[in-house]
Amino acid sequence: MGSSNAELEKRIEALEARDRIEETMNRYNRSADFGALEEWADCFMPDGTYETAYEDGHVESRATGTAELLKVVEASRRRNAGAGRHFIIAPDIVVDGDTATSTALMGTFTGIPDNVRLKLFGRYFDVLKQCADGRWRFVSRRSELQGRAAEFVGLASDGTRS
Question: How far is Cα 66 from Cα 86, in angstroms, rounded to an integer?
Answer without folding.
Answer: 20
